[in-house]
Fold this protein.
Amino acid sequence: MKTGIILFCILLAAAVFLLWLLRRKRRGILPDEMEGHEFEHYCAGLLEDNGFLDVEVTRGSGDYGVDILAEKDGVTYAIQCKRYTGPVGVAAVQQAYAGRDYYDRMVGAVLTNQYFTAPAVDAARKLKILLWDRGYLEGMMEHGQEL
């Protein structure tokens, strides 16, 4: 009886550890090595996994600064995706701003695997553009896996 309980506890601990490793491995896979268009499709999938509807990746050129169009809870979004190796600057915010108006969307956002420069944050605040940085992206990756 005592041996069975000990064996059960060991197996349970091993199972919990394996689940933790798998989750950590999945979470650690950030799209840092993807090509730009591949990153856009990856982000579109994450948005769908997180409750966005009518998610559409725009064509690669002539997209007026928007890579993804989507809707959630009655709010329409124009999203600019930036897969960078360093901080994202003001140009991405300007593109999301222009694209939001061009596509007649309620909200403009920039989604990136990095973080934003201080001038980009200031511009986004003034232009009312959402900034979804690496931390936000990681949160979407975790939440989408749990759905």
Notes: The mean pLDDT is 85. The CA atoms of residues 90 and 120 lie 4 Å apart. Helices lie at 2-28, 36-49, 90-102, 118-127, 134-146. Strands lie at 53-57, 68-72, 75-82, 107-112, 129-132.
